[in-house]
Amino acid sequence: MSPLRQQINEAINFLRTKTSATPSVGIILGTGLGGLAKEIKHEVVIDYADIPHFPLSTVESHHGKLIFGTLGGKSVVAMQGRFHYYEGYTMQQITFPVRVMSPKGGLGVKTLLVSNAAGGMNPLFTRGDVMLITDHINLLGDNPLIGPNDDELGPRFPDMSEPYSKELIALAEKIALESKIKLQKGVFVAVPGPNLETRSEYRFLRGIGADVVGMSTVPECVVAVHMSMRVLGFSIITDECFPDALKPAKLEEIVATAMAAEPKLTTIMKEVVRQL
Ligand code: HPA
Question: Which whole number is the average pLDDT over 170-178?
Fold first, then answer.
């Protein structure tokens, strides 16, 4: 048994002392985007600190709880609070919860919904917009799949032609239209942070094909794809990153924008889960 498999099993064995739930949907909530957790009918809530091999969440605006419950009539598990590379965690630590959630890991989650706060570089995007992630660029300079591969968890060289499920994107678009919520679509680029970008960096990131930039999501998506899970990703545009008209960004404003836009995201995500 690989060391990773061993750790997954230890986490699962612990969780099984708390719940026998077999959620089909996993949800990772980004900075300022924890509101969906309130919509979940909580059954069991577990502190990350209690789960073997789960890292601890350090960012203040994050909570650090694994929530088991129901949403839109489906059994779900949600991470309230996620781990970022800039906090000093390894890619393997950041993605460990996704391993645990997956069918091969043990909880049985086949569909992963992910949200994040991101800077908008596409000039057609406005602060407060919701964007469906159609593809990503990994500029983190690291990858959670580096190291020995456990072939029982997934392939050495996973395909990345459709990291975000086209079928789920179509479903989310349909729901947004019905709910009269404006939905952007675009490419997310992940950078390590923690500083925001310089004008020249935004210009570069836009130039290589990205619409929005953030510091999360890509590791979790890569590991979910490695384990054959379907991923649906959303960004909330929390600040406008137009290189030639850049204004100083304040963390409080970024979090406040995320929180203000959050109900739109909650409406879409909840309905996606219901219609899965
Ligand atoms: N850059 C990187 N991450 C971010 C940004 C940004 O401008 N805004 C919100 N998260």
Answer: 97
User: How many angstroms separate the alpha carbon of residue 118 from the centre of ligand 1?
Assistant: 5
pLDDT at 62 over 60: no
Q: Probe ligand 1: pick from 140, 234, 254, 255, max atoms within 8 Å of CB?
A: 254
**How many other C-beta atoms can be found within 10 angstroms of the C-beta atom of residue 64?**
18
| Residue 30: per-residue pLDDT | 85
Residue bearing the bigger pLDDT, 37 or 149? 149
Long-range contact pairs involving 11-14 (C-beta distance under 8 Å, separation at least 24) = 11/51, 11/52, 11/53, 11/54, 11/96, 11/100, 12/100, 12/105, 12/106, 12/107, 14/50, 14/51, 14/52
Whether pLDDT at 27 is above 60: yes
Q: Looking at residue 81, what is its pLDDT? A: 82
Tokens of 45: 């809530």
Distance CA 145, CA 33 (A): 27
Nearest CA to ligand 1 atom 2: 214
What is the distance between the alpha carbons of residues 108 and 16, in angstroms, rounded to a whole number? 13
Domain borders along the chain are 3-275
Checking if the pLDDT of 59 tops 60, the result is no
pTM of the predicted model as reported, rounded to 2 decimal places: 0.94
- Specify the higher pLDDT residue, 144 or 32: 144
Rounded to the nearest angstrom, the distance between the alpha carbon of 190 and the centre of ligand 1 is 9
CA pair distance 233, 256, nearest whole angstrom: 20
| Ligand 1 centroid, distance to 82 Cα (angstroms) | 16
- Please state the CATH superfamily assignment of the domain spanning residues 3-275 in this structure: Nucleoside phosphorylase domain (3.40.50.1580)
